[in-house]
């Protein structure tokens, strides 16, 4: 079978183009692959479970028919486009190629882990390879069309794993949770004309803002520098990297947060605010910097990137859409500082102090607060439309330089750990046992993983970090970050 040929034939049947916004166009060119794990003790329930899951995926694609299309960018095209066929009356999952939905049964000779073993070992990242569990194992590329949504259902010894693969250029994390929540619900109505038309109107309104003549005040957005437009690739040491999940108890994070917040209120005013992810991110960033410090120059700039949801940053929904807007509404914010200030050489042999963590968390919070004013939000949306192509993403990637001085953080605490799956045959009603991403060891990547209760509750905090092997060994040492780990 020729997958590329299959996709090309499928594209030839697609007649409509879905409107994309500037925020879509600068989104990371990656597939977001989320794996939801459930105990599944009875193999006799496999057939009814597959039938049910196929129908739920069918309904979800009815609700968002553009996710049943294709993302295409041919050689020479400045932008990608999303083409689809909108025909709710004759919509059938049986028309889809096999690359959109399939299932597999993996015996212990195919997959070494049982579900219980995975869970007891906090689901080691390397166990969930995208080639095995994802229907879209490759990230988007020019000249290679891809499906914006796919689901692979995998049955392992004692467990069920659902791997949703969605194109990050079409949907962000908030939208993915909406998709999975609808998928897991008892809702029987797929396509909703009023909802779909409202979504189109919202997207067209955002594009109207982006295409407006009012110039964005780019000086208020220093963390979205678009120069150079086509930078050279950052230097790459070509050293092996590894991803690990670092676990912290809720009590440890609560204590660090309370003490750090007290410090910044005393130092920066009683209205100062820090979130728990701010503090946890700062704690990890500090120890990563210390691990890298021997090969960095004191005057180099270290950066910590975070994703900010614009839905929550404007009282004017015409700018960003409502909280339930389906699509992309995240832009990146960056905290930065000189290496000599963030990780002084004089402190290299002493443990990281609470004051150092608190001030670093305050730096992270100030980076996020860059997009606090409605003017900044409107400017960010306009900037996405003005820059439009990959220039912002290219410049950001170059400046962040994750392989040397940068750390890119994704906060996915609310990414599905509390979604209720009440009707899957063979699965006890309730939330998934765990939620993970497929394995990636891209150096300088950090992910605060989905957690029951989001930022509240008593569940452990888990952070996936990818670093050079020697750096990982350093940060996990007992006198370094290891002192906080479970």
UniProtKB/TrEMBL annotation:
- Annotated InterPro entries: CAT-like_dom_sf, Sec_Metabolite_Acyltrans
Q: Which UniProt keywords apply?
A: Transferase
GO terms for MF = transferase activity
* Listed name of the protein: Uncharacterized protein
- Species source reads Lasiosphaeria ovina
């Amino acid at each position: 079978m020729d997958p590329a040929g299959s996709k090309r034939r499928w594209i030839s049947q697609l007649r409509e183009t879905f409107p994309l916004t500037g925020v879509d166009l600068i989104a990371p060119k990656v597939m977001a692959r989320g794996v939801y794990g459930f105990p599944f003790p009875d193999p006799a329930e496999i057939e009814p479970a597959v039938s049910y899951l196929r129908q739920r995926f069918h309904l979800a694609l009815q609700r968002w028919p553009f996710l049943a299309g294709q993302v295409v960018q041919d050689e020479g095209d400045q932008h990608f486009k999303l083409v689809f066929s909108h025909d709710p009356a004759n919509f059938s999952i049986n028309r889809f190629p096999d690359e959109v939905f399939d299932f597999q049964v993996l015996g212990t000779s195919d997959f070494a882990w049982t579900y219980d073993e995975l869970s007891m070992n906090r689901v080691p990242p390397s166990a969930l390879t995208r080639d095995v569990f994802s229907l879209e194992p490759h990230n988007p590329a020019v000249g290679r069309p891809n499906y914006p949504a796919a689901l692979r259902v995998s049955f392992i010894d004692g467990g069920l794993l659902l791997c949703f693969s969605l194109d990050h250029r079409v949907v962000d994390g908030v939208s993915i949770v909406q998709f999975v929540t609808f998928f897991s619900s008892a809702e029987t109505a797929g396509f909703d004309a009023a909802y779909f038309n409202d979504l189109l109107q919202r997207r067209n309104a955002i594009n109207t803002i982006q295409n407006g003549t009012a110039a964005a005040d780019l000086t208020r957005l220093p963390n979205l520098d678009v120069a150079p437009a086509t930078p050279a690739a950052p230097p790459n040491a070509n050293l092996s990297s590894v991803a690990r999940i670092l676990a912290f108890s809720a009590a440890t994070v609560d204590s660090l947060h309370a003490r750090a917040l007290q410090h910044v209120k005393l130092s920066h005013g009683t209205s100062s605010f820090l979130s728990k992810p701010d503090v946890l991110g700062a704690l990890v960033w500090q120890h990563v910097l210390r691990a890298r410090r021997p090969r960095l120059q004191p005057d180099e700039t270290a950066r910590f990137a975070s994703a900010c949801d614009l839905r929550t940053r404007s009282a004017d929904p015409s700018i960003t859409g409502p909280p339930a807007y389906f699509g992309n509404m995240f832009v990146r914010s960056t905290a930065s500082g000189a290496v000599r200030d963030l990780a002084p050489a004089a402190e290299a042999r002493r443990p990281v102090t609470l004051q150092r963590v608190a001030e670093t968390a305050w730096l992270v919070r100030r980076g996020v607060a860059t997009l606090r004013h409605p003017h900044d939000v409107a400017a960010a949306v306009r900037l996405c439309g003005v820059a439009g192509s990959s220039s912002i993403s290219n410049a950001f990637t170059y400046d962040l330089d994750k392989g040397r001085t940068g750390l890119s953080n994704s906060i996915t605490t609310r990414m599905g750990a509390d979604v209720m799956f009440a009707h899957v045959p063979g699965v006890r009603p309730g939330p998934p046992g765990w939620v993970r991403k497929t394995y990636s060891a891209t150096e300088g990547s950090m992910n605060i993983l989905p957690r029951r209760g989001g930022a509240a509750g008593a569940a452990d905090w888990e952070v996936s970090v990818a670093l050079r092997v020697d750096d990982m060994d350093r940060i996990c040492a007992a006198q370094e970050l290891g002192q906080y780990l479970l």
